Amino acid sequence: FSSRRRHTRYISVTGVQTCALPIYVVTLSFTKNQQLHVSAALAFEQLVTDARSQGVSIPTKVDMSYMSYADQLKAYNLRPSLNPEPGKSIFGWGLTLLFNQKDPNFNKFRDWLKINAYKYNIYGLRADPRDNFYVNGFIDGKDNQWDYRGPVSSS
Fold this sequence. Notes:
Blueprint (H helix, E strand, L loop, with lengths): L3 E10 L2 E12 L7 E3 H16 L8 E3 L4 H10 L17 E4 L6 H11 L5 E6 L6 E3 L8 E4 L7
Antiparallel strand pairs: 1-2, 2-3, 4-5, 5-8, 6-7, 6-8
């Protein structure tokens, strides 16, 4: 990993910052300028290493990873109908990667993830357009959001 940085995770209830928690994030080695919580980064890095060892090409284009509260606020103000209120974004925890579906390596990598990701406590999710909740499942082959759901260390 490159630099390890401490961020503050703000939790919002009814749009008011109510609590701040420390989050330690690191920059991922396989993609440019994307960060995750240390625990999630270790799992994704091991997953990528193992996929490469099996001849799977890794997508280098990642659309989203950890988002600070300030970044969530910018995104919300830019497009409030598409973004959750600041403090309510899953990306604020630093446990999620959103791969770019247009990356030439994405489809084969996604197929490998569907079979192997659970071994690293990583699971694919998709947004259900009917109710904006996240549901398990793979529909229409365009699932590009993957979440780490394993143990999380505080350092």
